[in-house]
Amino acid sequence: MKAQIKKTCDCWNSHTFKSESAQELRKDATKLIIFFIMGKEKHHKNTIERAKKIRQLTEKYYEQGNNARCYKAVWRKYIYPVYPMCYRTYLNALAIPTPPPQEPTARQLTFWDLLASM
Questions:
Q1: Helical (H) or strand (E) element with 1
Q2: 3-state secondary structure 53-105
Q3: What is the number of domains present in the chain?
Q4: Which residues span the domain enclosing 23?
Q5: Residue 90 and residue 56 share a domain
Q6: pTM over 0.85, yes/no
Q7: What is the pLDDT of residues 46-66, one digit of tens each?
């Protein structure tokens, strides 16, 4: 088995690159920079589903300008009993991007449409 030559990047001494050409080194460095800037690339399905449910509850009970229904009050009264998490985690969950809800298609009729067609 051939021994791989490891080259280190000038800016991060702890990170080693396994590629040998300068172009591949630039690609690896770019990926590393993007990873450090962007953080995680994506979230798990369950995390996104939980964020959707938390966002729905928050949209239902939050009122801007009303201190009795601020984010902290919504978290304390409605979110924490169902999803035990600290307030900071709750705010982070609100920041998770979630896909918009899908519009009902021809196959997905709502209950009221079904009743109206009868």
A1: none
A2: HHHHHHHHHCCCCCHHHCHHHHHHHHHCCCCCCCHHHHHHHHHCCCCCCCCCC
A3: 2
A4: 7-38
A5: yes
A6: no
A7: 999 999 999 999 999 999 988
